[in-house]
Design a protein that fits this description.
- The chain has 2 domains: 1-31, no CATH class; 33-120, no CATH class.
- It has 5 helices and 3 strands, in the order ααβαββαα.
- The protein has helices at residues 8-15, 19-30, 59-69, 95-104, 108-120; strands at residues 36-37, 78-81, 90-94.
- A 3-stranded antiparallel β-sheet has the order 1-3-2.
Length: 121
C-alpha cells in the first residue's frame, strides 16, 4: 500500500505528528496542473508582492522570464485576449511551457560558475 492510498486519518495513526508533512506532499504530488495561468495581480505600494500560486513568482519576475524565453528552445507560450473595444485584456500563460522553460534553466551553482567564467574572459 502506498502513502497516496492512505487516508489522512490512517496517516495520523501511523505517523503521529508527521502526518501534516506527509499529507501535504501527497496532495502536492497529485494536484492537477492547469493548462493556462494568468500572472498575479499588480503589487500595491507598501504591501508585499502578490505571488503566483503555481510558481511562487511575482508578476514582474514571471513576465521577465517569459521575455527571456523568447527565441530559446523552451519558449513560453502566451496568449493575449482582449474584448472588442476594451483597453485592457488578459494575459494567458501556457503552464506546461512555462514549467519546461523553468526546468531548462541552469541550477544556481551552474549559473554562478557560468557567470564567473564569462567575467574572467
Amino acid at each position: 500500500m502506498s502513502l497516496a492510498t492512505l487516508s489522512p486519518q490512517m496517516l495520523s495513526a501511523i505517523a503521529g505528528q508527521r502526518e501534516k508533512l506527509i499529507v501535504i506532499q501527497v496532495q502536492a504530488d497529485h494536484a492537477p496542473q492547469p493548462e493556462w495561468i494568468t500572472p498575479p495581480a499588480r503589487s500595491v505600494p507598501g504591501k508585499p508582492p502578490v505571488r503566483c500560486p503555481y510558481t511562487g513568482l511575482s508578476r514582474s519576475t514571471l513576465l521577465d522570464l517569459i521575455v527571456e524565453s523568447i527565441g530559446t528552445e523552451h519558449e513560453v507560450v502566451i496568449k493575449h485576449r482582449r474584448k472588442a473595444g476594451a483597453d485592457k485584456g488578459v494575459i494567458l500563460i501556457h503552464y506546461p511551457s512555462l514549467n519546461a522553460y523553468l526546468h531548462s534553466l541552469p541550477a544556481w551553482k551552474e549559473a554562478k560558475v557560468l557567470e564567473t567564467t564569462e567575467q574572467d574572459n
